[in-house]
């Protein structure tokens, strides 16, 4: 039993390394996503704008899903970071496509249109799921 426990503890350094890479990627995603979107999500969320919270939360989940797949299936930290970057690009491009597809998307989120926030969140999560499945190489 002690040997099993000690063996299990050997996994802590890789866990910490992958977790650190994931946190850095999430922070980079948040920075790039909030830079690409014309609305100030964080300010809108602080102002209790539910549409902004839904849309941004969906984008975070949509990024975290393929990031978790990249962690699970990667061969190294570098491999994980590369596929995490792919996930980041796909999720940012999802917003760009949605902005073209949905008329006045930023304005609608700024105005707190819940339906728009739900649609953006749903689309981001759906793309994240597909992205994650494609990373199960």
How far apart the termini lie comes to: 35 Å
**Approximate strand percentage:** under 5%
**Poorly predicted parts:** none
What would you report as the Rg, rounded to the nearest angstrom? Answer: 17 Å
Assembly context of the chains: single chain
Q: How many strand elements?
A: 0
Mean pLDDT: 94
Assign an overall shape: elongated
Instruction: State the helical fraction.
Output: over 70%
The arrangement of helices and strands along the chain is: HHHHHHH
What structural category do the secondary elements indicate? Answer: mainly alpha
Entry keywords:
about 140 residues, mainly alpha, 7 helices
What does this structure look like?
The protein has 137 residues and is mostly helical. 84% of the residues lie in helices and 0% in strands. The chain contains seven helices and no strands. The radius of gyration is 17 Å and the shape is elongated. The protein starts with a helix and ends with a helix. The mean pLDDT is 94.
Q: Which secondary structure elements does this structure contain, and how are they paired or packed?
A:
Elements: H1 2-9, H2 12-36, H3 41-46, H4 50-73, H5 77-101, H6 105-110, H7 114-134
Give a quick summary of the entry:
The protein has helices at 2-9, 12-36, 41-46, 50-73, 77-101, 105-110, 114-134.
């Amino acid at each position: 039993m002690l040997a099993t426990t000690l063996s299990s503890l050997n996994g802590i350094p890789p866990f910490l390394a992958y977790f650190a890479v994931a946190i850095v990627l999430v922070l980079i995603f948040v920075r790039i996503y909030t830079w690409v979107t014309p609305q100030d999500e964080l300010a809108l969320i602080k102002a209790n704008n539910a549409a902004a919270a839904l849309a941004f939360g969906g984008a975070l989940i949509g990024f975290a899903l393929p990031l978790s797949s990249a962690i699970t299936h990667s061969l190294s930290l570098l491999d994980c970071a590369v596929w995490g970057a792919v996930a980041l690009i796909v999720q940012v491009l999802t917003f760009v496509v949605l902005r073209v597809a949905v008329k006045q998307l930023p304005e609608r989120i700024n105005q707190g249109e819940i339906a728009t926030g739900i649609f953006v969140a749903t689309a981001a999560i759906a793309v994240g799921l597909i992205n994650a499945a494609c990373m199960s190489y």
